[in-house]
Design a protein that fits this description.
Elements (H helix, E strand, L loop, with lengths): L2 E5 L8 H12 L5 E5 L5 H6 L7 E4 L3 H4 L10 E5 L7 H9 L2 E6 L3 H18 L3 E5 L7 H13 L13 H9 L11 H19 L1
Parallel strand pairs: 1-4, 1-5, 2-3, 2-4, 5-6
Helix pairs in contact: 1-8
Length: 207
């Protein structure tokens, strides 16, 4: 059976789709990978369909069909991009079959409040291994991300050591139809290195 990696947060605008597409691209170098866009907004699907990606794509929001993903053959890893709605049956179905959850969040206090609500209401009751990934971190204010990491750890919430800095390169990738590892714009190399470090850290948890 494939490993199921779910990217989720009850709040939108935290880099969820960016994380799903980029992790799928990086991890596809090691595993045969399927990206499932379970968000009705279809942002991941729109991005991926613009050009060739190193993984397969399926756009599927039906909760019953999502629950059957564990039976998918000829694929090692399934990455699911979920809708930003705690009450979504698609989100709950994805969490129910997950082996690991990546929970992207910005480091701002208002985002952390929503994040903690998501974890307490949805993730902890599901008893699924998870880790928060701080995203859209201002490269000039790394101290804010470090402080957010510390605060989350003090409340018992697991956090990735690495985080994703905010660069314009991330905004251009969907328009160009490429993952950050194939981007050529300014700071693309730095942005790609952030996701590579996160992917490396993630593999230690998946294994």
């Amino acid at each position: 059976m494939p490993k199921i990696l779910v990217i989720t947060n009850g709040k939108g605008g935290v880099g969820k789709t960016t994380t799903a597409v980029n992790l799928a691209a990086i991890l596809s170098k090691r595993f045969s990978t399927l990206l499932v866009d379970a968000d009705p907004q279809n942002s991941a699907g729109w991005w991926v369909e613009r050009s060739q990606m190193p993984f397969e794509l399926s756009c599927q929001t039906n909760p019953q069909l999502l629950q059957q993903l564990k039976q998918t053959k000829n694929v090692d890893l399934i990455v699911i991009d979920t809708p930003p709605a705690l009450e979504s049956t698609s989100l709950l179905s994805a969490i129910a079959i997950a082996d690991f959850l990546v929970v992207p969040s910005q480091a701002a206090p208002i985002d952390l409040v929503a994040l903690i609500e998501t974890i307490k209401k949805t993730i902890i009751p599901a008893n699924v291994a998870h880790r928060v990934l701080l995203t859209k971190v201002d490269p000039r204010s790394l101290g804010d991300a470090l402080e957010a990491q510390k605060s989350l750890q003090e409340t018992g919430i697991p956090v990735f050591r690495n985080f994703i800095r905010s660069y314009k390169a991330h905004e251009r990738c969907p328009l160009e139809g490429v993952p950050i590892t194939q981007a050529k714009s300014k700071n693309a190399r730095e942005a790609a290195s952030d996701y590579r470090r996160v992917a490396s850290e993630l593999l230690s948890h998946l294994n």
